[in-house]
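Example 502.
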Amino acid sequence: MSARAICLLVMPLAAVVVAGLATDPPAAGQEPYREPLRPRVHFTPPQNFMNDPNGLVFYKGEYHLFYQHNPFGREWGHMSWGHAVSTDMLHWKHLPIALGEEDGVMIFSGSVVVDWHNTSGLCAGEDGDRSCLVAVYTGHGHGKQTQNLAYSNDRGRTWTKYANNPVIDLNLENFRDPKAFWDELSRRWVLVTVLAEQHKVRLFGSPDLKRWETLSDFGPAGATGGVWECPDLFPLPVDGNGGDVDINPGAVAGGSGGQYFVGRFDGTRFVNDNPPDQTLWVDYGKDFYATISFSDVPKSDGRRIWMAWISNWLYANDEPTETWRGAQSLPRVLQLRRLPEGIRLVQAPVAEIDGLRTGPEMAITGRATLPPSADIRFEVGRGAGQEAGLRLSNAAGEEITIGVRASGPELFVDRRRSRATAAHEAYAGRHAGPVRWRDERVTVRLLFDRSVVEVFANDGETVITDRVYPSAPLDRIEWLGGKAPEPARASMWELRSVWETR
Ligand code: FRU
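Predicted structure in complex with beta-D-fructofuranose:
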């Protein structure tokens, strides 16, 4: 039997969310998904503003992605749940808004579960079985945040808000982001929420998703420099099997960021395995926030997969993108790995991405042409010099560098020279996270997608996710300093756009 540890994730947010409304229509004559900053393999909304992924769930052969969305403008406001479905988490089909703002109540972040046995009584049994989809979301309005239900009996195509909402009302202004799951141990639904300003995760339990009792609180712990948002709680195997979870010492790039805790959950209470003052960061970039993991991925698949919003509240409303704002990360598979410093979260892009490769593997020796989206691998050997890696640039002299710095050693992404006029003062920066030499080298996988870089070092031990907003496409790639360090290996594949076949 494999050993299991519980990963609990809470997100501090250092910036205040500012409501605003813009009503720019999409630019006339502009072909969707061909705009210069529009990612080709990452999910972006057809138009207007998007932030957190919500309600990730697998049901009857489809992955569902809901997302925080302003249907009316390119800045945060009028929050509703946008919706898309996919059979591979990459090729998404846009569906109409699932849940809209109503009576002065916005639809904030939350989750969706499959109520397999109609514990809620909300399933109509229309599809030949007893199951249906139930969303648990935060209603934001009239001076407070409450937890609410909505349900769908037609595979998520239409949604009905539960007549007796809210299901939890603590009369609090900052109580949000419910993540629900069925707990086999206590045989009940568990709801993970945040008391955002108190830096607490509050857990509730219920037999039917409607009547909730308080189970326990976790926190404050780790980073508390901002409000806590978007918690998640799930079991993860350590190294695939065996062993126990030990105690060991442990938003890093500024603004919004995710932290995680590793510990045990007994069906009522989460107990941290590490000291409460230890902070473990999910991602060392500036653009990876509000993660949520998929619910109900079939046991035969067994993966724990999450996605995050690739932006930062410091500049989310100022991104210089075309008719839309905000992107979702590629889905990532999570695991816990036993490292010299303790048990740590590792993240890897889902294997489905390999199917987007087109054309031959291309070696990067001198300067090469960089396709608009690419899956790039490189290795940096220990003797490679102070800084080694890759430079992505354009004819306008804008560049982003990604590599390994020997002192530390650390993985870095430097976007200080990536746009002549920075999108926002908080945007320009160099982001770095600790890495280790494994067999005298660091291996790096870089997923580049027009305005997104996701960088995974040593099979996901250190991750940096950043947006980049060049004024002209980054279409050149070369070794930093012009010459490949010894020993060096780098190659890339072009990735096909997921929107081409729509
Ligand atoms: C996180 C967040 C959530 C909230 C939502 C509102 O980015 O602030 O806490 O539910 O966005 O759009």
